[in-house]
Description:
Elements (H helix, E strand, L loop, with lengths): L8 E2 L2 H4 L4 E8 L6 H5 L16 E8 L9 E7 L17 E5 L2 E7 L3 E2 L8 E2 L2 E8 L1 E4 L1 E3 L6 E3 L4
Parallel strand pairs: 4-9
Antiparallel strand pairs: 1-6, 2-3, 2-5, 3-4, 5-10, 6-9, 7-8, 11-12
Amino acid sequence: MAINGGTRFPVQHEDVFPKGALVMSVEPIMKFQTAEDRARGKAPEPETDKDTGERSWAVMVIDQAAERKTDAVITVKIAAPVQPVPPEAIPGTDLRPVTFEGLTVTPWLDDKACRPGPAGDKHRCRARLGYSLRAKGMNSALIKNPVRGTATEKPAA
């Protein structure tokens, strides 16, 4: 088969975030650490991207097209040697509109809710398809207004 598990499929920013995305935070992603490691005082290690070997950063964004509140906050991972800097906020607000470049999506099966029923009962699987988003970088979704010198959102494609 030409498609293996963990394949990153390229997508356009507008396809994933049709009404735009707003940056909330950028944080380093750390490798999982066992309770034993923590008890021994072992320092947490940063997670690295398996393709580039660079550090992985979690960019928390609000998807403005989300239909449910629970789906609104999304993490986009960026591999970079230093922490990516979020774009400039809209003047007078904390809103930071962003566009992602080199965006990819990796589908995965979330089977945590898939449990066998009692003996003799029909199996009810509540598994769902999840997505992991990665990007090569992020840019401001604002353009400077040459007349007023203020920033406005770029028109949607």
